[in-house]
Write a structure and sequence with these properties.
The structure is a single chain. The protein is of the alpha+beta class and 245 residues long. The protein folds into two domains: 5-139, no CATH class; 150-244, no CATH class. The protein has nine helices and seven strands, in the order αβββββαββααααααα. Strands 1, 2, 3, 4, 5, 6 and 7 form a seven-stranded antiparallel sheet that branches. α4 packs antiparallel against α5 and α4 (150-161) crosses α8. The radius of gyration is 20 Å and the shape is globular. The model has no long low-confidence stretch (mean pLDDT 82).
Length: 245
């Protein structure tokens, strides 16, 4: 995730309390924003301005790892405090505890695994997560919607992204790579993905003895839709070896 000198200057002006290094970003992420309902996105302002949504969080982003999209930490325990106030778990807030800090799940979407400029990563992925969090604490909902946790969310997102890409083979391979990081959940899903029986994709047309029924009942409609499409595309694009190795 390389940043040009122009990008670094732009980010330094937008977020003066962040320190930008080759291998990390750390410091205070302060922001002011309003939610554009019709576009399902946030408009960011100078933190000194009056805005409906304002916040400050201590963050650390580690670029030394292969996938920095999974290494965004909130380091002052604010998310844990929000979870305690709401009597929610960290997973309910799309976060998890790691190394004493909160690893926020800002990269649960397959398209975000692709290389994107640092400015877009901070402004369109990291900051909106914290905006969503503030709204959720205040009003009890996620303004931009949300996917399920872990493997279920990956399958839900895969189902959505199929309609938005011409590179279905590439998206399918990305999906498998994401699922492979889910450990036991992926091993469980592989039972279905390697079934020789072709699934017709029907939510309601499964008999009680159909081996796919248990997956339907556990996953829910949208994740199940993603799962059967993934199964078909693995065969269609000769990617079955990706889950059999």
């Amino acid at each position: 995730m390389e940043a040009s000198d122009t990008d670094k200057i732009r980010l330094a002006n937008m977020f003066p309390d962040l320190i930008f290094d080759k291998n990390f970003i750390k410091g205070t992420l302060s922001f002011a924003a309003k939610f554009l309902e019709d576009q399902k996105m946030y408009e960011l302002f100078d933190p000194k301005n009056i805005a409906p949504i304002k916040g400050s969080f201590q963050i650390f982003i580690d670029f030394s790892k292969q996938n920095p999209y999974r290494e965004v930490y909130e380091t002052n325990g604010e998310i844990k405090k929000i979870a305690d106030r709401l009597q929610k778990t960290l997973l309910d807030l799309h976060a998890k505890e790691k190394n004493g800090h909160i690893n926020v799940c800002v990269a649960g979407y397959l398209q975000e695994r692709q290389a994107i400029p640092l400015v877009e990563f901070i402004c369109e992925i990291v900051t909106p997560y914290f905006c969503d969090l503030i709204v959720f604490e205040k009003d009890g909902y996620w303004p931009r919607g949300e996917y399920a946790h872990g493997a279920l969310g990956i399958l839900e997102n895969y189902s959505d992204q199929l309609a938005l890409t011409d590179d279905i083979a590439g998206l399918t391979e990305q999906c498998i790579n994401e699922l492979a990081e889910q450990g036991k959940d992926f091993e469980y899903l592989k039972q279905f993905l390697i079934l020789k029986k072709k699934l017709n994709g029907s939510w309601t047309g499964l008999s009680k003895d159909d081996p796919a029924k248990k997956f339907r009942d556990i996953l829910g409609r949208k994740a199940f839709d993603g799962l059967w499409k993934l199964k078909d595309n693995l065969k269609k694009y000769n990617l079955l070896s990706k889950i059999q190795s």
